[in-house]
Q: What sequence folds into this?
């Protein structure tokens, strides 16, 4: 309930105003000391209009006399002032000031200070004045304010963001660095596959050379060497701790009367942590089938080894455009009965058979196409997260001169290196492709 007191006499004017049969203008300014005087002309025009038509016009405030006097000085206000409670005034209109129009004691219209109607040439009936509709000027002002305070800074920020991101990518392109190596979850890996090379002494010398070239290096990838069985037990105790060790194969039997075979448990007992399985040379020369490989993978995992599982098409299959089909079957037949948990422990290596040891490397695009296909195949079976976390290495005539281009591809996470793993400097050159 509002109570309006005459500012000079202290008399209660509430009833008088509520019973007024005509229009009454109330300029409501709960605090005159902080009231906006931006739209004074319109307020004064409204007052002149009210006076000319014989309508009462009051300013209602909760401010003390001192501020009323200041407002009068500041605005030249001639209208009388009424006092009311600040909270009550705020419930009528929050704008400070705001204009309220009463008719027969009822509020029929109100405007905040930015919307006060221009009554200088008012011809229409007062109760036809639009409520709350903004002046065109004010609308433009509001739009301009939105643009100024919100959209322009937003556009500037977006532009800066694009600039920074572009620069980062340009830098990475310049150094031929895979843009994903910074934020991808999966590991980058460079793994050597010594194949049937090096006597034990030569192998030990190679390890010493590797230790030396990597002594001060901080590889941006995991480094692994896969050696013949005969080297494993001698290599694991002397190799730099930056380098992991693996075998090139293991048996598809747990143990027993299998002359010449080496079991996954035996490999693990040397301290080795990895094992290459399904290499195309084993598939081609030793007739390893997907069925056998499936068992080898299971045995490797059961013995805590990380399989580096190789897939890849032969030349005639590539020429027939069957690379995806071949690689897809190799993956599915040997691996897709694994649980998600076990599959997540694998490293995959794509090695097109026609590129192995031939000096003929797949182009970055050719390799990336198959890598992306492999990742999608994994995603379809095990979900995107598993696929994104699986490292997929490229193998086939990878050397320091082409490693950067290959590793820059988004789905290539490193290499399985044959020939170039037999010289410490070359191997280091490939590792450096990640720096
Ligand atoms: P390559 O061999 O690098 O000599 O072509 C790769 C591999 O067979 O793992």
A:
């Amino acid at each position: 309930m509002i109570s309006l007191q005459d500012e000079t006499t202290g008399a209660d004017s509430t009833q008088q105003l509520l019973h007024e049969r005509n229009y009454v203008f109330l300029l409501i300014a709960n605090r005159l000391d902080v009231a906006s005087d931006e739209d004074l002309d319109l307020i004064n025009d409204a007052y002149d209009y009210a006076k000319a038509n014989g309508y009462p016009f009051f300013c209602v405030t909760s401010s003390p006399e001192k501020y009323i006097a200041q407002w009068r000085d500041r605005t030249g206000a001639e209208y009388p002032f009424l006092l009311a409670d600040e909270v009550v005034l705020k419930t009528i209109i929050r704008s400070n000031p705001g204009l309220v129009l009463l008719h027969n004691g009822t509020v029929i219209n109100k405007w905040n200070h930015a919307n006060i109607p221009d009554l200088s040439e008012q011809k229409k009936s007062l109760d036809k004045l639009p409520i709350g509709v903004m002046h065109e000027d004010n609308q433009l002002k509001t739009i301009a304010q939105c643009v100024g305070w919100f959209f322009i800074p937003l556009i500037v920020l977006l532009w800066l963001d694009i600039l920074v991101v572009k620069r980062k990518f340009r830098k990475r392109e310049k150094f031929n660095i895979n843009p994903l190596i910074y934020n991808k979850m999966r590991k980058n890996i460079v793994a050597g596959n010594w194949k049937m090379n090096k006597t034990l002494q030569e192998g030990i010398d190679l390890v010493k050379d590797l230790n030396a070239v990597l002594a001060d290096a901080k590889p941006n990838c995991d480094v692994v060497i896969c050696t013949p069985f005969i080297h494993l037990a001698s290599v694991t105790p002397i190799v730099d701790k930056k380098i992991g060790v693996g075998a090139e194969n293991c048996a598809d039997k747990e143990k027993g009367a299998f002359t010449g075979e080496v079991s996954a448990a035996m490999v693990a007992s040397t301290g080795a942590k990895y094992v290459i399985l399904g290499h195309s040379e084993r598939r081609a020369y030793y007739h390893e089938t997907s069925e056998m490989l499936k068992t080898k993978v299971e045995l490797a995992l059961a013995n805590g080894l990380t399989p580096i599982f190789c897939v890849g098409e032969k030349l005639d299959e590539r020429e027939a455009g069957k690379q995806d089909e071949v690689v897809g079957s190799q993956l599915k037949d040997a691996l897709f009965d694994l649980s998600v948990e076990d599959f997540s422990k694998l490293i995959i290596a794509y090695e097109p058979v026609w590129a192995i040891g031939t000096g003929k490397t797949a182009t970055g695009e050719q390799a990336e196409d198959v890598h992306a296909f492999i990742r999608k195949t994994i995603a379809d079976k095990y979900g995107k997260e598993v696929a994104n976390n699986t490292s997929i290495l490229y193998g086939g005539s990878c050397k320091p001169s082409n490693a950067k281009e290959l590793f820059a591809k988004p789905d290539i996470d490193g290499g399985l290196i044959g020939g170039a793993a037999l010289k410490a400097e070359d191997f280091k050159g490939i590792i450096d492709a990640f720096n």
Observations:
- DSSP finds 17 helices and 14 strands in the chain.
